[in-house]
Structure formats: C-alpha cells, structure tokens
Input
Amino acid sequence: MSMNGGQKKAAALRYTHGQDKAPKLVAKGSGAVADRIIEIARAHGIHIEEDRSLLEVLSSLDLYQEIPPELYKAVAEILVFVYKLNKKVAG
Output
C-alpha cells in the first residue's frame, strides 16, 4: 500500500507453498479500488505492508503474473515476517 500524490494505491500478492512457483499479483489499483483491496485484506486478517518502491514495480505487472526474480528477496522477507507473525499469534 502507498499514498502517491494523495491517491492511495494497493497491490495484492498470492502465494501457495507447494503449488505456486513464485508469488503472483492478484489485485492492483488506486483510489476506491485500493481502498477495497485494503478492506478485503483487513477483513481476512491478511498482513498489509507499506513499501512504495515494491508497489511501483508490482503496479507495472499484469494481473496473475508471477513476480520477477529481482523481487524474490523483497517479497521473501515479507513472507518470512508474516510466517513468524502468524506462528507467534498461533501460540
């Protein structure tokens, strides 16, 4: 999620371990669309990360496109953080 010139932007990734080769972009948008992406994420307890640089690259991808290899490290760091957070919450 990011604010750019006052307009909110958001993108959503999906990754299913053992099924997906790499995370895929499943939603992106600005304004009302970004608000809806964020609302759905919050309703489902999905972690929201604010990273303007990552968002700019994700926004340039086509929907359902796998992230390019140059983003693997940045996205992996977020996934590890979310995994640890979920594990801590679960007990």
About this structure: The chain has a mean pLDDT of 88.
